[in-house]
Amino acid sequence: MAFKLYRNESDPFEQFGDEDHFEIIEGGVLKISRPDGTFTYINPALWATIEETPTPSAYASQAAYSTTGDVPPDEQPF
């Protein structure tokens, strides 16, 4: 899943792709794993937030959330 990294700087954000992965390890250090097997470690004082961006396939179809009666009640998610 792609994600944006917002730092504690004036830069708006840094974009990472679907094959990049992150985890927060001991002490709040942000560890970013790249597809080529390399890692980037970012001090907790230098990053603010992470926003995950779901892939388009992660979104349910509009029909699944229809309130018009097009989808039978027993098939609606709610």
Main pleated-sheet profile: 3 strands, antiparallel
> Which word captures the global form?
globular
Tell me the radius of gyration.
18 Å
**Percentage of residues in strands:** 35-45%
**Poorly predicted runs:** none
How many helix segments?
0
Mean model confidence by pLDDT: 81
- Structural class of the helix and strand makeup? mainly beta
CATH class of the domain at 1-53: Mainly Beta
Q: What pattern of helices and strands is seen along the backbone? A: EEEEEE
End-to-end Cα distance: 26 Å
CATH architecture of the domain at 1-53: Roll
Enumerate the strands of the largest sheet in spatial order, edge to edge or round the barrel: 2-1-6
Q: What's the CATH topology name of the domain at 1-53?
A: SH3 type barrels
Task: Provide tags for this entry.
single chain, 78 residues, mainly beta, SH3 type barrels, 3-stranded antiparallel β-sheet
What does the model show?
- The chain is mainly beta.
- The protein has a domain at 1-53: SH3 type barrels (Roll).
- It contains no helices and six strands.
- The chain has strands spanning 2-7, 14-16, 21-25, 29-33, 39-42, 47-53.
- Strand 4 (29-33) and strand 5 form a beta hairpin.
- The radius of gyration is 18 Å and the shape is globular.
- The mean pLDDT is 81.
